[in-house]
Write a structure and sequence with these properties.
Length: 318
């Protein structure tokens, strides 16, 4: 799609649906284009540009999964290992499940854990550890490995594995493993980092259709592995370029072995009963946060369908 065509399409679609601000990036045939429209906030309007930060919501899971795969490639984590090898203090409502759940079960949503917790555990460096401790109160809705069932808590637990293995906070680990080597200079977890840059807020329509600012802007720190990253469309295009490549960063530094990147594109679980349909035809990653929506997909077939750019291993399931 030509840049002018993309710009016209984005502007027309935003006007049709009353979207205050939007940024869209497309990569096709080795070429990239982006289009930005509207404002960051109806209360404090600034033009949206390619470096404007949007909360990614569950698209963040692609970063958590890829960081984990760096640790797998380095021999520091095994996908088939029980989670308790890395988080021995893990307590869940079902003791048998707590002993059996593997790292892969977390990444492909087959842990059987319910959605997760809704408790703000603060902004300290222990926020994720406390959130994971609260998983003891989350219902076990299926045996580990039995079926796919979307779990925010599962990805927060995956983030805790990253903390335990690296000895760093989750945010610092992802920065060191991915953000910095890939040059993703407009991607942040902390609101104090985002507030010094241009960022978009969410909006919700009232009964008369008038848009007002949605709150919260993003969820608490303990939920960062599942939904906490804010990023720009320019960085998302860089992220897409990496996942469509051979595992190297733009300057040639090896981030993941090419074989590992290919492994991430292989399906590991059937999406029976999912509104996404057949896993071989329609797999996307989407995110939402209080009036913001993110969508990250890949078209492999020529249809209006796609495969998750972070890999079929880490499929979002409703």
């Amino acid at each position: 799609m030509a840049p002018d065509t993309l710009t016209e399409f984005v502007a027309a679609t935003a006007a049709q649906f009353g979207i205050p601000g939007v940024a869209v990036g497309v990569r096709a045939d080795g070429q990239e284009a982006s289009a930005c429209h509207g404002v960051t906030s109806v209360d404090n309007p600034l033009p949206v540009d390619a470096d404007t930060l949007f909360v990614l919501g569950s698209v963040t899971k692609t970063y958590t999964a890829t960081a984990m795969m760096r640790l797998v490639a380095d021999g520091r984590v095994e996908l088939d290992a029980p989670v308790r090898r890395y988080v021995p203090e893990l307590v869940l409502a079902d003791e048998s499940a707590a002993a059996q759940i593997t790292v892969l079960n977390l990444l492909n949503h087959t842990s059987g854990l319910g959605w997760g917790t809704v408790t703000d555990t603060g902004e300290g460096d222990d926020a994720l550890a406390v959130n994971v401790a609260n998983l003891a109160g989350v219902e076990q809705i299926a045996p580990p490995g039995a079926r796919a069932s979307y779990s925010q808590g599962g990805y927060d637990l995956a983030g805790r594995i990253i903390e335990k293995v690296t000895g760093l906070t989750y945010e610092r680990a992802v920065a060191a493993l991915l953000l910095e080597p890939l040059g993703l200079s407009h991607s942040f977890y902390a609101p104090t980092d985002a507030m010094t840059r241009r960022f978009a807020v969410g909006h919700n329509p009232g009964q008369d259709g008038t848009m007002t600012v949605g709150r919260l802007w993003k969820r608490w720190r303990g939920d960062n592995p599942g939904a906490g990253l804010a990023s720009s469309v320019a960085d998302q295009l860089r992220w897409a370029r990496f996942h469509l490549g051979d595992g190297r960063a733009g300057r040639g530094a090896r981030i993941l072995p090419a074989q590992t990147l290919r492994q991430m594109r292989e399906p590991t679980v059937a999406l029976r009963g999912s509104t996404l349909g057949d896993a071989d035809e329609y797999i996307v990653t989407a995110g939402g946060m209080k009036g913001q929506r993110g969508f990250f997909s890949r078209d492999e077939t020529g249809k209006v369908t796609g495969a998750d750019l972070a890999g079929r291993l880490f499929t979002r399931v409703p």
